[in-house]
Amino acid sequence: MSHRPDPAAVWFGILLRQFPELHQELAPSRGARPLGGGHSGRPTAPAAPIRLFVSDTIRDITDGVVELEEAVCEKLRLPRPPRGTVLDRLGRLVALLDRVAERPVLAEHVRGEARRMARRCSLALGDAESPVRVGGRCPHCDSVSLRAFPHRETVLCVNPGCRCATSDCGCRTDAAHRHAWARTEWQDLAETTAGDLAELTSALDGVRPGPGGLGGLDGLGSKGAGAR
Predict the structure, then answer these.
(1) Could you tell me how far CA 191 lies from the centroid of its own chain?
(2) Do 214 and 113 contact (CB within 8 A), yes or no?
(3) How far is Cα 91 from Cα 112, in angstroms, rounded to an integer?
(4) Residue 194 has what DSSP assignment?
């Protein structure tokens, strides 16, 4: 029996690994000059100024994790979670995923928030998005060139020679054009290519199948709560 990891667990795993790296990005380099160290006696800026967008990302993720854990505990009728670091709270959220999975609306919200925060963390660190290969052949060029881009929630045909039969399509005039399918079109794509819709969804969630957006939810927010 095949088993696909919980998508939320995958995104939380990325956060657990990368969130500490955000704090390393804020640490001044060894070559930074202290304020007031100029020969003129006037304050001088550090050689490696604090990156405000990284600081904003840390604050956003911290607030998001705090609010998400408290909301999940409320929905599961658990006591309010104790204080803790972001990593502590992420670990506790992972431990609750089996119970969260029993509530589809809650599970979708948790997945969406985990994905949003992991994406923001990765982008703040400058990570490029890695495509995931999916099965099936492109319905336009019949090549095994379909790739899912999780952050964009899109499947692209990466074959530069792909051409379709539509006379006014951009692939006929623009060499850089790539045929794309948004998530809402994946059902039709799976039927057209005789592919596996579950595989496409797993690719979007950053899960590679192997052996073994955020929906509205009353009472579950994503931002605005201070770290507690």
Answers:
(1) 27
(2) yes
(3) 17
(4) T
